[in-house]
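User: Let's play a game. I give you a shape written as tokens, and you guess the letters that built it. Ready? Here's round one.
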């Protein structure tokens, strides 16, 4: 027979305390990094200069009856959101814009829309001439680099498969500007046309 006490080495208290110390140190480093990152001053500031909500009208031929045209329009559940924005680099390093999207929150649901590409801008104003007042505004381009102290102003366009009634039930409308190696810039608007608040995450 073998001696259990000899064959199975005991775990020494010193070793247990050492492992616990290492674990505590790792947790402290993670917490310190989280606190430092969240206390870092924002690199960017911005505004939603306007929020224009447009419901595209279905095109019907001249032979369509008024009732048919009205019914067709009622079935068109689509909204185009135009948001001129201004983005400023208030940090010490260049900022590169990588992504832009908007989130519409209603109750427990969130609807995300990425901005349309610059190549689609001409088509928007061709199909919807009612928006011609925005046609002279340049889009904000991905991969735009903002040097410290610089700013860019331009137009973002989003699309949602929703109705006006659903839009009016929203809790918030937020536009997020993402950068490479920097915090996102979040611009929040609750009421169309109001100036937005600036937030970072």
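Assistant: Ready! My guess for every position:
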């Amino acid at each position: 027979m073998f001696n259990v006490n000899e064959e199975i080495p005991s775990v020494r208290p010193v070793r247990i305390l050492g492992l616990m110390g290492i674990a505590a140190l790792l947790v402290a480093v993670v917490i310190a990094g989280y606190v430092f990152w969240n206390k870092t001053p924002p690199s960017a500031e911005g505004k939603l200069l306007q929020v224009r909500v447009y419901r595209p009208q279905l095109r019907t031929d001249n032979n369509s009856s008024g009732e048919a045209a009205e019914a067709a329009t009622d079935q068109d559940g689509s909204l185009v959101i135009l948001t001129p924005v201004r983005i400023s680099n208030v940090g010490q390093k260049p900022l590169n814009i990588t992504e832009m999207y908007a989130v519409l929150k209603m109750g427990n649901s969130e609807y995300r829309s990425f901005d349309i590409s610059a190549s689609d801008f001409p088509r928007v104003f061709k199909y919807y001439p009612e928006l011609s007042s925005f046609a002279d505004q340049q889009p904000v381009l991905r991969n735009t680099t903002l040097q410290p102290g610089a700013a860019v102003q331009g137009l973002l366009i989003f699309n949602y498969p929703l109705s006006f009634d659903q839009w009016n039930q929203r809790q918030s409308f937020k536009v997020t500007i993402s950068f490479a190696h920097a915090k996102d810039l979040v611009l929040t608007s609750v009421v169309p046309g109001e100036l937005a608040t600036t937030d970072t995450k």
